[in-house]
Specification:
The complex is a heterodimer of chains A (196) and B (274).
Chain A lengths: L1 H13 L10 H6 L4 H30 L8 H23 L1 H7 L2 H4 L4 H12 L4 H31 L9 H16 L4 H6 L1
Chain B lengths: L1 H27 L7 H8 L12 H11 L12 H12 L9 E5 L20 H6 L16 H5 L5 E4 L2 E4 L9 H5 L5 E5 L3 E4 L7 H7 L9 H5 L5 E4 L2 E4 L9 H5 L5 E5 L2 E3 L5
Helix pairs in contact in B: 2-3, 2-4
Classes of the chains: A mainly alpha (196), B alpha+beta (274).
Chain lengths: 196, 274
């Protein structure tokens, strides 16, 4: 049980996908302008991370590894995740239109997102069991959610701030992102010391 | 060779499986969309002005398809033509529609009126209005800072000489400026040749006269001159009922302040007195 908690907390805080591993920067900068689109995107990311881990872990363990095809990991994962997200979109559109409406535009955006691919590949590299991998995906998704919500707050403050003209727009956003990322470096070693 | 095949074949198989899964899923779970929706959307001009009362053209198209009670003549920029096309696609009555444009009921440019204060605040009419009702001597006229021009989706309004002017060729009659103007001096009028009162000043004649040389002084001469009884002076300012107006131009000729103008093809003019 302790291992699950460690994995979860590390994924959220220490190895935060956006702020420590620098994966998924594209939606982090692109969709974080407003809180509601940031939450919509993050929930879609959590959702896709979970289902893609649930599918790719068995593929790696029971299909690729026994046949010595581990090197096909990246291309197979991309293929499977893209198809899976499309399938999920079709299913949602048919059976849960309300959820499709709120996740709809974000789902195709994250089909080949590097954070999603990163989670699935790192799950294998870390040698996690199936449930550990699932917990890691959940934690990574939550970490993404946390980063997005925090940063959308920062950006809404930036909007009202009096910024020098040459820094307006993307430059100040990148600076703010780096400072936010710096603050997450402070979590390094916290979890191991708590439970170690 | 064998090494390549062992790599390629599994990927191809997985690809084909995924493709088959997606094809089956999209066939089985296809959601029936209204076939008319894209056609209806195509008829609409796509200005997304919101004059119809729905959220953009997509919203109006959706409302038209889902609810047959939605009138087909709500699109003001598209006018009669779009209403007719929509009614053909949907199979309902088009209803009457009259193309409209915005008109500024103020003639007080910098030659006619003057500033009473030197306003140096935010360049916005609604902000300037809060300070002593604007910088101009007339508290009812155009504030001249261009809130309407900023709001106009078609860039059909320019501010020249401290007075907003409508470029009627560009104006789609969406009415956003009507709602934006803090002095409410813009209204929608039929886009044809017509007379209108270029003043909104509700002060008594003497006060109006001091503030602006082309202000309506409420003398009621036009009321008496109008053979059709289309003009009424209420609250010291004249207004023309365009439903009754015959376009004879007697009011404009007789107006001592010269604030009744002829709008012909987007050009405002005072009639030449003979």
């Amino acid at each position: 049980m302790t291992k699950f908690i460690i994995i979860l907390l590390s994924a959220v805080f220490i190895n935060n996908y956006v702020l420590s591993r620098f994966l998924g920067i594209c939606p982090f900068l692109g969709v974080s302008k407003k809180l509601d689109s940031a939450t919509g995107m993050s929930i879609a990311v959590i959702f896709v991370m979970l289902i893609s881990t649930a599918v790719t872990w068995p593929i790696q363990m029971y299909l690729l590894n026994p046949n010595n095809l581990g090197y096909l990991q990246t291309i197979v994962f991309i293929l499977v995740i893209a198809a899976l997200v499309q399938l999920v979109e079709i299913v949602l559109k048919r059976y849960i239109p309300s959820l499709h409406k709120s996740l709809g535009v974000y789902l195709p955006l994250i089909t080949t997102n590097c954070a999603v691919l990163g989670v699935t590949i790192l799950n294998i590299d870390e040698g996690y069991t199936f449930w550990e991998a699932m917990v890691n995906s959940l934690g990574s998704g939550l970490g993404f959610f946390l980063a997005m919500v925090m940063f959308s707050g920062v950006r809404s403050k930036l909007e009202g701030a009096d910024i020098p003209k040459s820094f307006k727009g993307l430059p100040i956003t990148l600076i703010a992102a780096s400072i936010t990322s710096l603050s997450f470096m402070g979590f390094g070693g916290v979890v191991e010391n708590l439970f170690g | 060779m064998e090494a390549i095949l062992t790599a390629v074949i599994p990927v191809v198989i997985i690809g084909i499986l995924c493709a088959a899964m997606l094809v089956i899923a999209s066939k089985l779970m296809a959601v029936k969309e209204d076939e008319r929706l894209p056609k209806v959307r195509e008829c609409l001009p796509g200005a997304n002005c919101g004059a119809c009362g729905f959220a953009g053209c997509d919203g109006y198209a959706k409302a038209l398809c889902e609810n047959s009670d939605t009138p087909a003549n709500l699109c003001i920029p598209g006018g009669a033509e779009v209403a007719r096309e929509l009614s053909e696609v949907l199979g309902v009555d088009a209803g009457e529609i009259e193309p409209k444009v915005a008109a500024v009921h103020c003639g007080g440019d910098c030659t006619a009126t003057d500033d009473k204060v030197d306003y140096q605040g935010i360049e916005s009419c609604s902000a300037a209005k809060l300070v002593y009702g604007g910088k101009g001597k007339c508290g009812f006229g155009c504030l001249g800072l261009g809130d309407c021009a900023a709001a106009c989706p078609q860039d059909a309004i320019i501010v020249r000489g401290g007075l907003a002017r409508i470029l009627e060729q560009e104006c789609i009659g969406c009415g956003i400026c009507v709602k934006t103007c803090p002095n409410r001096i813009i209204s929608l009028v039929p886009a044809k040749e017509h007379y209108f009162v270029a003043c909104s000043n509700k002060d008594k004649g003497a006060a109006t006269r001091k503030a602006c040389s082309v202000g309506c002084i409420g003398c009621k001469k036009c009321e008496k001159l109008c053979p059709a009884g289309a003009i009424k002076v209420e609250g010291n300012v004249a207004s023309i009922d365009l439903k009754l107006c015959t376009g004879c131009g007697a009011c404009a000729e007789g107006c001592p302040a010269g604030c009744i103008l002829l709008d012909k093809d987007g050009k405002l003019s005072k009639p030449v007195k003979e």
